[in-house]
């Protein structure tokens, strides 16, 4: 079944109030649902049946206004309940009882058990696995929830909103009532019950509401919640000043569970998290983990306004809450950390995940127009490109008008289920600007290509800038319209300062931004005394691929002197990628890699430049990943050649600067107490990057082994282990360190995931044997999404040479495991399967075996809708 955006129509029935009673039991949970139903004004009275969504449900009883519904007056299946004989009155009460087995729910949608804890995941369509309902986001209801459970095994019982009555029941059971005064869609419903430890804190909002904050974790893990709690309080305060948004309930609870399909979920007042994004301390979490926790805690909290108070009319509008909330969490992290470093990390992620999606068979608009399975649209395009589109709105309107637009959006749509049109209209009305051409960013898939060429005439003191845009065809969209692309830029003078101009024509240029609105523009900047270098798409103001026809010398100059830090990184990165691509082509052609001295020297200078913050230097010196190089090559990919080119460049940089890098490693080694702050993390990052370069140019594993042994925190320990595995495969030191890590963390699955991950990422065809063996490791479990992502996800997405083995064995292993996962957890199987989305850009031999693997999957029996959708679109 295909769902289409244009088919939306409001429901004939509303559910103003929902009362749920849960009699919890692992095998036999009873859910008693009492709904206040109301016929919508305009719906034809008595004529329209009430059709409720279900998914695999077992109905025990159904009553209307207290009377059982006769067999003839209803049609029941596990996936639907239709009631044809309804009361004449506009309102009535529908009561249903359903029976569930949470312990046997392996899809991790609806109500399930994770490590002995009952928990729920209802977005997007999981509520219908709990009870029959109008399970669509435009049905807003006020929920009252009563939970009953065994007191001893399940002392804690949580739901949305504020806590109400609690008490004892016969047979050692007890109950708790929760009431959420804010009408919400069913996907935001949540319940958690079990034996959990907690930490509490408190925050007074700016209008004086005192909010009790709770984080619930497995017993013994309380000490790992401090960073998450701190991040939560900083998020709450930040949203008050940055967006004027205040919290609205008396409690805010976060629960960490160990089996979770994604990162976290913003259920009203009761966020549920993958424990990976809550638990952290210096011994078990890396700096990257700390940064992710901060970002995801913020993300889910920010959803309270962008997602919960204002929700989505239908799932086509998903970016309305996700793109916007990602934008908000990006801004939060930028304010808490280094803005330039954060921006570069965002761009790397966007190019690494969203660009391949947008440029391959799974491409779709930020607001899709059709889907078969909505769970397959929680994508980098909806989230990350969606965030970039919001960022562009701010670039187009300016900071003040953007904030006024946001204020207007909140004012107009609070308590509603809104659309992307509503959102953009708020900005148009607040600013008086026409955003109709801009709206194409929501409607057209594909990464726009922008080409630019600058010509300077000293005689005329004029710079002519020719810019063209084109959007490539994507599945189902062959002809594209011309977009409104805001390109931030600077004209960099010989002294590195930005130059001004007297007059410009050919396009609107405002506040350092060129607004492309036509297929091609010819801009003339007049009154420019010296030849400037062009720094274009500063801060990555638009998510486009950019090719500027320019001299290598100009790029080298910008990498050293652009006043915009992002611009410097971009120039350096382009130089590195170009070199690596040429190197890979040479190697595939049987020649030597290219290792330009000027670029090697430049890298040394940037790493050693004390005027730049360490985190920035570390990012700049992290060579583009093999997948990045592959993406930029675009076609005829040979991962072995790419790996060889990359390894040789790393070795050249490492040996050219070995002495300086050793000194820097010393200088960046702190001895004081650990702190997860961005500054300290940056020093660790730089230290570990130079360690990797040093290892790349030496056969001696001893230094890395020493760093592993002496590491005082997980960041350094994991980095040293990765260096050993990647640069000194097979060395005795490497084997010993791997064994030590396994021994030390055997009882800590989250930490052991790093051990799986590092081994799965080890380059080379032999890694497949390692990965096959690790599937049988006692700590691995195919039922746990974190384990799967650490081992299989890392292998398929971060190991180009292992996964894309020329003999196709990598794909065969992958296909088998995906099919196995699909029988339990279709959502995770489908997500993993997207690793094959770029198969068409491989060289012919690999392309053929990849296709075979996809065909084998698609013809397997009993494929889930989720997996079938991904595989069929990938093949199409
Ligand atoms: N709304 C959640 C978040 O972004 C993610 C939910 C993902 N749901 C899904 N079915 N994939 O914070
Ligand atoms: Zn979200």
Tell me what the structure shows.
- There is one protein chain.
- The chain has 876 residues and is α+β, with helices and mostly antiparallel strands.
- Helices cover 41% and strands 22% of the residues.
- It is built from 27 helices and 33 strands.
- Strands 6-5-9-3-2-12-15-14 form an eight-stranded mixed β-sheet, with no helix packed on it. Strands 17-18-19-21-20 form a five-stranded mixed β-sheet, with helices on one face.
- β5 and β6 form a beta hairpin.
- α26 (844-858) packs antiparallel against α27.
- The protein is globular and about 90 Å long.
- 51% of the residues are buried.
- The mean pLDDT is 98.
- It comes from Nitratireductor arenosus.
- Residues 89-188 form the Aminopeptidase N-like N-terminal domain.
In short, what is this structure?
With 876 residues, this protein is an alpha+beta fold. Helix content is 41%, strand content 22%.
